[in-house]
Specification:
disordered C terminus, 7 helices, mainly alpha
């Protein structure tokens, strides 16, 4: 069963917004490439960039599948959530054990687990009752991704690393 027609406008806007925001994330990363992906770049910057990218790509692909008539958005949500969880786990293996990073990991995984549960419910029941929850979840993913991208532009990942270099007890 496909997505109800009332959601087409939302998923169209969501796919477009995700595409534009992915492009803007690339711009944000290009403003500080050596501090995010350089050889001496702090792991926190890579994790923030990767996390923002994962959330936006998640929204993009779920929204694109939602626009295909009679497509299985539940299956798409399952596949994308599992892929997002794997990407998030891989990113956070590279980051030092810091409370903020641990919180980011827990919240990201909880969000993608919730998406997985919604996807399973949609796929199993072939109903559309959970599609609004999926749409609201995407709004949360957008908010988190934008916050992380903005932190990169501001260089907050650099100030945290500089603080740790001065005082190792902060790590």
């Amino acid at each position: 069963m496909g997505v109800p027609a009332g959601f087409y406008g939302y998923f169209t806007a969501s796919a477009a917004a995700a595409g534009v925001l992915i492009g803007l994330l690339f711009v944000a990363v290009s403003l500080r490439p050596e501090t995010i992906f350089g050889a001496d770049a702090p792991a926190a910057g890579r994790a923030q960039a990767g996390s923002a990218f994962t959330g936006l790509v998640n929204c993009f692909f779920v929204s694109m599948v939602a626009l295909i008539p009679q497509a299985g958005i539940g299956v798409a949500a399952i596949v994308v959530s599992l892929t997002s969880m794997l990407a998030t786990a891989r990113l956070h293996r590279e980051v030092a054990r810091q409370e903020l990073q641990l919180m980011m990991l827990v919240l990201s995984m909880a969000t993608y687990l919730y998406e997985l549960a919604i996807g399973i419910q949609i796929a199993v029941t072939s109903g559309t009752g959970q599609i609004s929850n999926l749409a609201y979840l995407q709004i949360a993913l957008f908010a988190v991704a934008l916050r992380r991208a903005w932190s990169l532009v501001q260089g907050k990942h650099l100030s945290r690393e500089a603080d740790q270099d001065r005082d190792p007890d902060l790590a």
